[in-house]
Amino acid sequence: MDFISSNIVPIKKVTDTIFHTKIEDPYRYMENLNDSIVIDWLQKEEKCSKSIIESISNYQIFLNEITQNYKTVAYSISKHKIIGNRYFYIKQKTKETTPKLYYRDGFSGIEKLIYTSKENYLINYIQPSWDGLKVAVGLTKNDKEFTDVIVIDVKTKKVLKGIASNSFPTNLGGLDWLPDNSGYIYTYVPITNPKQKGYLQNSKAIIYKINGDTLDIFSKKNNPKINFKEQDFPLIYLTNPKNKFTLGAVASVNRYRDTYYIKTNDLINEKNNWKLLFTKEEEIRNFIINNEELIYKTSKNATNYKICKTSLLNPDFENPTVLVYENSSEVITDFCLTSDGLFFVKTKNGVIAKLYHYKNKNITHISTPKSSGNIKLSSKGIQHDELWVTLKGWTTQNERYLYNFKKNSFKKENLNSNISSLDNLIVKEVEVTSHDGIKVPLSIIHKKNLKLNSNNRLLIYGYGAYGYSQKPKVNNYLVNWVNQGGIYAIAHVRGGGEKGYKWRKGGYKTTKPNTWKDFISCTEYLINKKYTNPKKIAIMSRSAGGILIGRAITERPDLFKAAIIQVGKINTLRSEFGQNGKNSIKEYGTIKDSIEFKALLEMDAYHHINNNITYPSIYLTAGMNDARVPAWQPGKFAARLKSVKTKKKPVLLSVDFKGGHGFDSSTEKRNQELAKILSFALWQTGHPDFQKKH
Q1: Distance of CA 136 to CAs 77, 92, 93, 161, 436, Å?
Q2: How far apart are CA 110 and CA 447, in angstroms?
Q3: What kind and span of H or E run contains 668?
Q4: Could you say which of 7, 259, 285, 449 has the lowest number of CB atoms within 10 Å?
Q5: Residues whose CB is less than 8 angstroms from the CB of residue 463 and which lie 6 or more positions away in sequence, other chains included
């Protein structure tokens, strides 16, 4: 099973001295993705990776099974939006290569086609106008995430004149229609090519009129009195056409933002006068405008969050009215308003969710149709009584219900055709004692007849960054892995949000080692409880989770057989010099600060590779159109691993030259990556049907 790659990339050592610490970087030049040597090597790595994966017995059969399983579902539906009584959504039938935009009047109404995207384009965003007569549609190609927005007349199905370019809707809050439906507001990104200077900088919130006119309303240039940094993103919140006030936030990777307000009627005034509403120090995560009140969720003096309200015109954030107090063992994860009051969700350990109602200081628990680990709420606002409740679990796909508060009844409103339960599985939720005594939630999923004989294949996932929780949901990696007889586990490590804001800060900058140490503790627990052994363990994550996996295998290489890192951040010392690097500083730190430099070095897996250590087998992916993690991050890591002097294990680097971060890739491409990654993991963990052909 040993493997030596013939694709050798030259070493060109660069040495930096940072705060009296010598840092040697043998592959710094690979950060130039225009270098012909680098491109040639990446192309060879992709070819080599593809060849090896395709030589695994059963790989092609596995891919065919995954593809056929997808085809057994008649269609998939996404981007569901309701305006008035009109339902808008994207639908892609199994045999179709492009998604289509549909609507229906009422849930039981006749489905009507509005728009079919062009070949090779994906619809990655939709937003209907307030009157439901027009719909803005975001189109993207090659997984670039950046979007051109067109507007379609619902009645005539014609594309109206004009295209709003350089939108980033999946990351920057989408767009909000003006109250009169004459246009919309969105965040415009001037430079979207990561190879150009100024990439993702000096963005503007602009009004885009249907006739093509534009107006800058919230930006560094237009609002010099506001403390915009060039890497910040101006976001606008006009969430109801009847709102007298519109909010604007100075956004970055930090969830807490300086936020301003303006009278909605004054938006089109070029000299608009935004007033400060609250700063990021108020730790406000989400908010709703209700007439002249702000209802919001905050972690200020409440690490598991509380829900408060205050006046918009005379705010008092020091002494707000507290509607829902913090609970020491549950985190408030969602809330919304209807004419029947405030509804909110509390979640324990990120995996046990419950629904509640608040009105007139009374809080009532609402029993949902089935227990759930993940509850999401949506409504039309305070003027309406509709409340939609979506339930998800590790073994239960989306189940969407319309809740009638007065009758205390749930009516199923599923648009998707693939609602099903995986009844032959067992889900165990446990807490594992980490290196410092902290209890870490761990989800364990496997078939009912599994024997705890220390010989089961395990695939364990973790993330631990940006405060994101790994919420229960069915995913293809889970389903296909357990169908091959393996155990799938999710370690809810620090850096995520499963246990509130304190949990997020427990794996952040100087405390980042807790992220991979929690993961290691969860792995050791599974070994000690005889679920598995180190020769049967594959570990996986993506993006910022590359830090977790990279440092887990460099700190405890003996504990894992294989590791998978998809589009992963691994070389953190160089993060601030990559695309969107200035925003990376807010999550990881900067080498210009002595304390943060030490933290960055500690979390940098690339610089923790030792020439005399044998590391687990590894499968890395990269996308040349990636707007978040440049391809040189996994590229440098692969090159460094290949250079170690010990007996080598497989180091495969799969580079998608027409792909990005993976958010907007096609179903075909997702299925191929799924089959490749799981075939690699099954091969390395000893599945007899997935061994390399000789």
Answers
A1: 18, 18, 22, 12, 50
A2: 40
A3: helix 667-684
A4: 449
A5: 470, 493, 495, 496, 541, 542, 544, 545, 548
- pLDDT at residue 531 is higher than 70: yes
Q: How far apart are the first and last CA of the chain?
A: 11
CB 230 within 8 A of CB 220: yes
Is there a contact between 297 and 319 (Cβ–Cβ < 8 Å)? Answer: no
Measured between alpha carbons, how far is residue 8 from residues 34, 44, 45 in Å?
18, 10, 10
Tell me whether strands 617-623 and 651-656 are parallel, antiparallel or unpaired: parallel
Dihedral sign computed on CA atoms, order 468, 470, 474, 478: positive
Q: Calculate mean pLDDT across residues 63-86.
A: 86
Residues 77 and 111: their CA atoms lie apart, in Å, by 13
Q: What is the rounded CA–CA span in Å between residue 358 and residue 535?
A: 51
Report the alpha-carbon distance of residue 405 to residue 318 in Å, rounded: 33
In percent, how much of the chain has pLDDT > 90? 78
Which class for 383: exposed (0-12), middle (13-18), buried (19 or more C-beta within 10 A)?
exposed
User: 694 falls in which pLDDT band (50, 70, 90)?
Assistant: low
- Helix, strand and coil content of the chain, in percent to the nearest 5, comes to 20, 35, 45
pLDDT at residue 4, as a whole number? 45
637 and 619 in contact (C-beta within 8 Å)? no
Look up tokens 């509804």; give the residue: 343
Q: DSSP letters along 525-581, please? A: HHHHTTS--GGGEEEEEETTHHHHHHHHHHH-GGG-SEEEEES----GGGGGGSTTH
Reported as a single tens digit per residue, the pLDDT across 183-220 is: 999 999 999 888 788 888 999 999 999 988 999 999 99
Tokens of 582: 């200035």
Lookup result for tokens 């631990």: 464
Per-residue pLDDT at 174 exceeds 90: no
User: pLDDT digit string (tens) for 391-423?
Assistant: 999 998 889 999 999 999 999 998 876 545 577
Name the helix (H) or strand (E) containing 63: helix 59-71
What share of the chain has pLDDT > 70, as a percent? 98
Three-state SS at 60: helix
The yes-or-no verdict on residue 6 having pLDDT over 70 is no
Q: How far apart are CA 572 and CA 32, in angstroms?
A: 17
Q: Summarize the confidence of residues 427-452 as an average pLDDT.
A: 96
Question: Contact 82/106 with Cβ under 8 angstroms?
Answer: no
Q: Copy the structure tokens of residue 160.
A: 């109206």
Residue with the bigger pLDDT between 625 and 52: it is 52
User: What span, in angstroms and rounded, lies between the C-alpha atoms of 242 and 244?
Assistant: 6
Tokens of 538: 């594959």
Residue 3 clears pLDDT 70, i.e. is over it: no
What order of strands is seen across the sheet that includes strand 374-379?
374-379, 387-392, 399-404, 409-412
Which range among 318-332, 628-642, 655-669 shows the weakest confidence by mean pLDDT? 655-669
Residues 6+ apart with CB under 8 A from 225: none
What DSSP string runs through 340-383?
Answer: TEEEEEEEETTTEEEEEEEETTEEEEE--SS-BSEEEEEES-TT
Give per-residue pLDDT as tens, 93-151.
Answer: 877 878 899 999 999 999 999 999 887 888 989 999 999 999 999 998 887 888 899 99
Give the whole-angstrom CA distance, residue 163 versus residue 138: 10
CA atoms within 13 A on the CB side of 610: 11
Name residue, tokens 């339930």.
Answer: 391
